[in-house]
Design a protein that fits this description.
alpha/beta; 2 domains; seven-stranded mixed beta sheet; about 25% strand
Amino acid sequence: MKYKEHILGYALFLLPLHRREFTINMKFDIHILGCGSAVPTSRHLLSSQVINIREKLFMIDCGEGTQFQLRKSRLKFSRLNRIFISHLHGDHFFGLFGLISTFGLLGRTADMHIYSPVGLKKTLGPVFDVFCANLSYKLFFHEFDVVEPVLLYEDRSVKITTIPLNHRMPCCGFLFNEKPRPAHILREEIDFHKIPVYEINRIKNGADYIKEDGTVIPHEKLTTPSTPPRSYAYCSDTAFHPPIIDLIKGIDLLYHESTFGEDQRKRADETFHSTARDAARIAKKAAVDQLLIGHFSARYTDETVLLNEAKEVFPNTLLAYEQLCISL
């Protein structure tokens, strides 16, 4: 173990028990790897993000340039086991070929799961048969319908559900809902009442402690509430689509495509994309905490015009850019 890891471990040991737990498990980060649309430019690469939830990595979309951006982010490849593809336009999945091959060259052994609307396995199968025939790990494809919301993945930390969108082809977004964490133990109360270690898990999950003489120590006296669970929604590509509002109501952060400004309203309607104002209207109606706009058309050399349009409707708006990391 490196010296700095020794120092970190010792620092965590000195923290109270509930603070130690919180420090280790608090991460919910959104890493933007690419936020351009259709074609890569010198300013933006194509759609891809990595969501880090308690040190488990989930990738959303995998446009060209994704593996290069993943290396720049310094995220650990080994912690990425699930990739979610929103739809089968090339700017959202052409990066898969190189990424899958590179993982094989690196000697990966852990399974990789890829989730997408119906058709991705058929599209990629012949290419993988030729170029990735002897992978050191197994690939599993999970295809789904995009008409209704579908629960794709669930573990102790998070639930991931599809968000049906309105695009030129079957397309969906993804909703990440963190599960509530157990309450934080008050170490001084545990010590004062001489509560044995084996009881702590039960207490964290809502149980009272009963002493040998029958005295009940309420759960509320032994704990503090955990921080509220966090949530994130990814919505790209889509026309203005009010049906998603109820699905994303009150979430912490919404990423919504803003391919065009109002100067290109006709083009947005023709291509089933949104303007920055459309994204802001969705954010406002859904009462989200914060809006992040991206998937910018290459025609804009300065996205400030898009940011200003969105802020007129929803002030708490940010521009996406490569290597941006937002921590919830």
